[in-house]
Design brief:
alpha/beta; 6-stranded parallel sheet; 5-stranded parallel sheet; 17 helices; 13% strand; globular
């Protein structure tokens, strides 16, 4: 019951071996669930209170800004109906990308971490955050920047933080909240946001991403061109991913997975293998850097054994570039950041995988598209040299 009704996140369950060896009495699941159901019901914000709050907010025509997080994934239809009806603008967190299509002219994108996003957020009369904990890795600053009314919706009572701004808590499932909002706002509201201004900000932030990590934006656009809309991406800790999760457009939610928070190196390949097994033939891509890839490179054998047509984008800049950049910004002499890398293509071939090193962007697109057609994984090896051709 907890897995299906509470916040969607991994759960670790340990069963001691002596307990596994014991015989247990037959039990009725409902008896075990009753206490949890009661506890969950007590934690939720009453529907009557939510309706009262929404009616007070939308008694006029406020300038509304939504922030959609990963908890809103899976309820795109309701979210998009609410978005259109309220004539709102929105941001998404990295894990909330695709809830509202990236190409929607009222979508500011996943640029919350850009400092000047405060300029936009402060313009809104009402900010409504849905299905997000607005964590440190979403914002990279202390304050969200709200100057109006801030409504925060999450199914998990522990998800809220007083540090990022004064807010009104609603403990509720994202889709339930969105459907209640649709009932309260039953006609389309007048437009309040300037689409040209939104486009200008998006271009500004994309240019900032390109200045921060030069050249990668162009490759990200090429990858989006090569990958079908329903592709699921699994990315590792690498500068390619940091740029990609900001600038690669997404039309579907829950289709980009990244090790947020702990920043686990080596995540992309094994996660992509699991994702490909569960995707029922839908396209999956892994994105890794030269350091992170070597944490779990042995999983290539698993992908080969399972005959997965999995493109693995390997970005090799020969160093821990993000750490080196951080050291330089802090006026610290870079230390232990230069890599002595293997021949990654030969290494992949040794596991029985395919390996290609496209010389230019055009060839890169073709290599990605071809990789989906294979019955084994393809390592697509790229370096900064691809940008000079």
């Amino acid at each position: 019951l907890e897995f299906s009704t509470k916040r969607k996140r991994p759960k670790y369950i340990q069963v001691p071996i002596p307990l596994l060896e014991k015989k247990i009495e037959k039990y009725t699941p409902k008896e075990c669930y009753s206490e949890l159901e009661t506890q969950m019901a007590d934690n939720r914000t009453p529907v009557s209170k939510i309706n009262q709050l929404l009616e007070s907010i939308f008694s006029e025509t406020p300038k509304v800004l939504f922030i959609f997080g990963g908890g809103a994934s899976g309820c795109e239809e309701s979210a998009r109906r609410v978005f259109r009806r309220t004539s709102a603008a929105c941001f998404s967190t990295y894990s909330g990308r695709g809830v509202i299509r990236s190409d929607d002219p009222l979508n500011f994108g996943s640029y919350l971490a850009k400092r000047s996003s405060i300029d936009v957020i402060s313009e809104a009369e009402i900010v409504i955050a849905v299905g997000t904990s607005l964590s440190e890795v979403d914002l990279w600053r202390d304050s969200l920047g709200v100057t109006g009314r801030f409504i925060w919706v999450n199914i998990d009572p522990e998800a809220f933080s007083d540090q990022i701004g004064v807010h009104e808590k609603i403990v509720c499932d994202s889709e339930v909240f969105l459907n209640l909002l649709l009932k309260v706002v039953n006609t389309d509201l007048d437009p309040k946001w300037d689409k040209k201004l939104i486009s200008k900000f998006r271009k500004k932030w994309e240019n900032e991403a390109d200045l921060e990590r030069p050249g990668i934006v162009e490759i990200c656009h090429a990858l989006r061109k090569a990958a079908p809309d329903n592709t699921t991406f699994f990315s590792d800790m690498t500068q390619f991913s940091y740029v990609g999760k900001e600038v690669i457009p997404m039309s579907l939610s829950n289709h980009w997975h990244h090790p947020y928070g702990f920043g686990t190196l080596g995540y992309a390949l094994p996660a992509a293998i699991g994702g490909a097994l569960g995707a029922s033939g839908a396209p999956v891509i892994a994105i890794a850097g030269d350091y992170g890839f070597q944490y779990t490179v042995q999983e290539l054998a698993t992908a080969v054994e399972l005959e997965l047509g999995l493109p693995i984008i390997l970005w090799d800049n020969g160093k821990l570039k993000e750490i080196e950049d951080s050291m330089r910004k802090a006026q610290i002499a870079p230390n232990a950041v230069i890599a002595k890398n293997p021949d990654f293509c030969k290494l992949a071939e040794a596991y029985g995988a395919l390996a290609v090193a496209p010389p230019d962007i055009k060839s890169f697109i073709v290599c990605v598209q071809d990789a989906f057609k294979q019955n084994k994984p393809t390592l697509i090896y790229i370096t900064e040299k691809i940008l000079s051709k």
